[in-house]
Amino acid sequence: MSGRQRTLFQTWGTSLSRPSGAPGGSSGSERPQSPGVSRARFPAAAEAAEEQPESDDDVLLVAVYEAERQQSLENGGFCTSAGALWIYPTNCPVRDYQLHIARAALFCNTLVCLPTGLGKTFIAAVVMYNFYRWFPSGKVVFMAPTKPLVTQQIEACYRVMGIPQPHMAEMTGSTQAFTRKEIWHSRRVIFLTPQVMVNDLSRGACPAAEIKCLVIDEAHKALGNYAYCQVVRELVKYTNHFRILALSATPGSDIKAVQQVVTNLLIGQIELRSEDSPDILPYSHERRIEKFIVPLGEELAAIQKAYVQILEAFASSLIQRNLLMRKDIPNLTKYQIILARDQFRKNPSPNIVGIQQGIIEGEFALCISLYHGYELLQQMGMRSLYFFLCGIMDGTKGMTRVKNELNRNEDFMKLYNHLECIFAHIRSTSASGIFTIKKGEKFFYSHPKLKKLEEIVVEHFKSWNAQNTTEKKCDKTRVMIFSSFRDSVQEIAEMLLQHQPVIRAMTFVGHASGKSTKGFTQKEQLEVVKQFRSGGYNTLVSTCVGEEGLDIGEVDLIICFDAQKSPIRLIQRMGRTGRKRQGRIVVILAEGREERTYNQSQSNKRSIYKAISGTRQVLHFYQASPRMVPDGINPELHKMFITCGVYEPEKPSRNLQRKSSVFSYRNGK
What we know:
CATH class of the largest domain: Alpha Beta
Mean pLDDT: 81
Largest sheet: 7 strands, parallel
Helix content: 40-55%
Keywords: ATP-binding, DNA damage, DNA repair, DNA-binding, Helicase, Hydrolase, Nucleotide-binding, Nucleus, Phosphoprotein
Strand content: 5-15%
Protein name: RNA helicase
Subcellular location: Nucleus
Radius of gyration: 29 Å
CATH topology of the largest domain: Rossmann fold
Number of strands: 15
Family: Belongs to the DEAD box helicase family. DEAH subfamily. FANCM sub-subfamily.
Strand order of the largest sheet: 4-5-3-6-7-2-8
CATH superfamily of the largest domain: P-loop containing nucleotide triphosphate hydrolases
Number of helices: 21
């Protein structure tokens, strides 16, 4: 077979009309059409049929219409001629593990877990293309959690398999409802966020019964009542005859979470590969992971000691009532207090009623807030703690009761005033969104980890420049720094501002807005990524928004400024480097609790992979995964070179208004 295979239905499309007067046709001038598809998509065929109602073309149209109608009734719309083969592209180098996973995913609902950068989207494009061929009247849907990811994936899939752009569409919440309804009926391959899909299913705009393949990106999010779970629950009300392909760099934070994903997404099998899997080793570049443990230092330790005394004052009441069973106050966590509060709500003591119950709820709320501040202090430093406490004390967070209680505590007010003396001028500056360091003004390092981070980044650019002799040497390397909190991201970027033009840093945050910093719209996020890839910035300081999915480009150094209990976060961060050349990953940890958290995360990751890969089955898979291919048909592999056209994205707005804080040293100017 030469060239790209096309079925009769792909050539004619799926909306061929029966001419008036044709056998079984309508008696009036209106012609029946395939459900939900405008005949305007094929004006030439329609006009020809109108001008020459008795021509051979007219007879062929009738035959095609009848065949299509019969096809939709038999075998769930499966085209037996197209289904004799499944197509695998050779325009990209063939990798055995991708071929194996793609084949498996065609015949069973599959969760694909591959380290970032090893071709999950490629596998999805192959599977989508084959369902697009096999079911000429069916829909193929790709869901991603954010609009920037949706935009990225539609182009990536096109570049792999070349599904015609007129057959594809991208939909977001900003697309008007009536337009989305028309798109559902006129296009065959849809890329969208799960929230849009839920809305369209509930309104009846989405033709649920026509969906034949559902791809779910960042599938580890499918927990609880997340939109992915709602979509699958809604679809099965209409049909069980659709394939699910779920993609993630990691299956979940623990075995319970993995089982939730498997259950919620009707997964029949997992295709799991780790960095050490033999079949991916030839295609993955080395990622060196280095861990730096940083002592708190005298100043931070003194602040921590004072803060623990405040915690003891407010937590003691809950401990005395036996509502907090753990009495080791410095090692309590916010999560443990939340669990204790939930337990109290489920099983309240009969002796605690009325106003007492409200008092206890207030004490829990106060302790949860204080312990959040405690974690900020240990992981991020004094400045992040101060900004958080400011939100309580100035009423921004709306926590009036907590504010009043703290105002009455002498130890707290003493600590708060001390922090205010150090950081008040910085907070007033940050409200404007633009940071500058005046000549002679010294940057205040609110955590010893900041000095270590600065040392590592500066040394990276120095060594890179020493090893490379080309002009604009620092434009050729990229650094990405992750911190979970927006205030910390701002602080890191401000610190690095001292080292421009060698280091040109830019913050990268989500779209929500806080008091001290404005968020990024999704267009702005894409613009920042574009400038980072092109060299406008060489250092990106990001919250978790930069962890998942977005094609940031090749990054040589990843720095994790904090540790998370969930291994998902670290795995996602690590995936930003080592795609095309060797990468380095540095984890900076505060001595003590944060160090223990990181070690626990690594242990969780190993136990998950061991449990899934082991011989003993620990997961309960969905047993009713449809084969989709009719009995007696076994599609044969056909490798072919697919020539893709030039992808034409929607034109972005030229006047991109920046609302976020800018550390601007663009293009060396």
